[in-house]
Design brief:
This protein has 126 residues and is of the alpha+beta class. It is built from three helices and five strands; from the N terminus they run ααβββαββ. The N and C termini lie far apart (84 Å).
Length: 126
C-alpha cells in the first residue's frame, strides 16, 4: 500500500512540475515581441510631419515617404533621394543645408542618392 502512495506522489509531482513548465513557456511565447524596425510617430511628433512636408514643399522638393525612427527622420524624395534629419535639430537649418548641398551637387553634376544630415558634417552617398 505504501508503494502505491509513493508512486502516486511521484506522478502528481511530475504532473505539477510539467504543468508549471508549460505555463512558463506559454507566458514566454505570449509576451514575445519582435523588435520594430520602424516606430510609430508619437503624438508630439505627428505635427512635425506636416511641418517637414511644408518645408520641403516650399523648397520645391517633393516628399514621397516620411518615417520617424528612434531619433531621426528618414525622408524619401522624388528622384530616389533619401535624406536623414536629426529630430532634435532645427528643421529649417537642416533644409537650408540640404538645399545648399543639392545646388552644389547639380553644379558639379553628381547627385547623391542619400544625404545624412544627422552629424556635424553631412554624409553623402552616391
Amino acid at each position: 500500500m505504501s508503494l502505491f502512495k509513493s508512486s502516486r506522489k511521484k506522478i502528481i509531482f511530475l504532473i505539477l512540475f510539467l504543468l508549471v513548465w508549460v505555463i512558463i513557456l506559454l507566458l514566454a511565447v505570449v509576451n514575445y515581441r519582435r523588435p520594430d524596425t520602424e516606430m510609430k510617430i508619437p503624438l508630439p511628433l505627428a505635427g512635425q510631419e506636416e511641418k517637414i512636408k511644408d518645408l520641403f514643399d516650399q523648397t520645391g522638393l517633393k516628399v514621397t515617404n516620411l518615417v520617424f525612427h528612434d531619433d531621426y527622420w528618414e525622408i524619401n524624395l522624388a528622384g530616389n533621394l533619401t535624406v536623414l534629419l536629426k529630430e532634435e535639430a532645427d528643421l529649417s537649418d537642416q533644409v537650408a543645408s540640404l538645399q545648399f548641398i543639392l545646388n552644389r551637387s547639380k553644379i558639379e553634376g553628381k547627385i547623391p542618392s542619400k544625404i545624412d544630415l544627422r552629424f556635424d558634417k553631412p554624409v553623402l552617398k552616391y
